[in-house]
Amino acid sequence: MPIARIYLAAPLFTLAERRMNVQFAEALEGRLPKVRVLLPQRHAQALKGRKDFGIRMYRWCLESIECCDAMVALADGADVDSGTCVEIGYAKAKGKIIVGVRTDFRASEEHGLNLMVARSCSRLVSRSSVTTTLDRLAASVANHLQRMLSY
Q1: Chain centroid offset of residue 51 CA
Q2: ∠50-16-89 over CA atoms, to 5°?
Q3: In whole angstroms, how far apart are CA 21 and each of 13, 54, 109, 150?
Q4: pLDDT tens digits along 65-120
Q5: Cβ–Cβ contacts within 10 Å for residue 35, how many?
C-alpha cells in the first residue's frame, strides 16, 4: 500500500510528452516503492470517448491534487504548458509540496522559468536535456521527495 501519492503535472499532447510522462512516472515509482504516481493520462484512458470527458477529467485532476502529498511538475518548453501552470497554482493554493522539473536548457526569467511558476515550486530540479538521463533526473527528484515527505 502506498504511503504517499505524487501528482505528475505535465503536458500530454504529443507522443513524446506522453512517453516521457509514463517513463518518468515509472522511474519515480521504481525509486520510491511506497509512492503511487497519479498520472492524468492514465485516468484519461478510462474516460476515452465519453461525452462528459472534459468535466470528468477536470474534476479528477483537481480531486487528485487535493488528495496528493506532493506534486512533480514537468516545466519544459519555451513557456510552461498552460494546464500544468493551472495545476501548479492550484497545488500551491492548497499548500502542497511542488517539485518543478526542467530539462529545457533555454534561459528565461528565473532558472529558465516564468517567475510565478519558479516561485510556486517548493524545489526546482533543473538538468539540461543535453547532459542528463531520465534515470539521473528521477534519482534527483526522488531524493528531494524523500526528504520533503520525510518517510
Answers
A1: 27
A2: 70
A3: 11, 20, 25, 25
A4: 999 999 999 999 888 999 999 999 999 999 999 999 998 887 766 666 788 888 89
A5: 22
Displacement of CA 114 from its chain's centroid (Å) = 16
Give alpha helix (H) positions in 32-133.
40-47, 53-67, 82-93, 115-120
Helix axes 40-47, 15-31, angle to 10 degrees: 120
| pTM of the full structure | 0.90
Structural domain count, the chain:
1
Query: What one-character DSSP code corresponds to residue 14?
Result: S
Domain encompassing residue 51: 4-149
What string of DSSP letters covers 113-147? B-HHHHHH-SEEEE--TTT--HHHHHHHHHHHHHH
Question: Which CATH number characterizes residue 96's domain?
Answer: 3.40.50.450
Residue 146 in grid coordinates? 524523500
